[in-house]
Amino acid sequence: MGAPVFRANLEKVSEIEDMFRRIEQQEGRLDGLVNNAARFTRFDPMDITEADWDFIHSVNLKAVFFCCQQGARLMRKSGGGRIINISSLGGIRPWAEHAHYCASKAGVIMLTRALAKAFAPEITVNSVAPGVIPFGATDERVDQMIHDTPAKRAGTADEIADAVVYFLKATNFVTGQLIAVDGGLSQR
What we know:
- This protein is α/β, with parallel strands linked by helices.
- 46% of the residues lie in helices and 12% in strands.
- It has five helices and four strands.
- The N and C termini lie far apart (41 Å).
């Protein structure tokens, strides 16, 4: 049994608002929200343009905020819910050629903490920070990160999903938290 699919251009707040209206009309309520959409590019920081910055931040941070806002409004109507924001190892550890991405994902972590306070006690807000989770061929840089991972392997999508499910089922006493699912790489 699958879940219904709702789509929106996450660069546009009006489309995010419309998507949540459609969710309410079709489903009547929202119990859990996982903000998983993200963009990832690689540039020397000296070469990042305003357009490059906005390309990353419009989805990785701005859209996460407005989805949290709209989701929380809907959740409050039915007594509460759970929000999980997917951040990144890049929000914990700096990567020189991904400064704009790292800033966006660090922003997701702090946004999670701030909204956990703002939406409590009815709604919990937590974050999962994946480590190296390849979805195809790897390059030398990724292979080095895998080698540097204390678990000595890359992670899997199922391992990220397990952390998300934990937060979806957890008591409301668990809020504002970050789980790094990274094989220990963030501790190096």
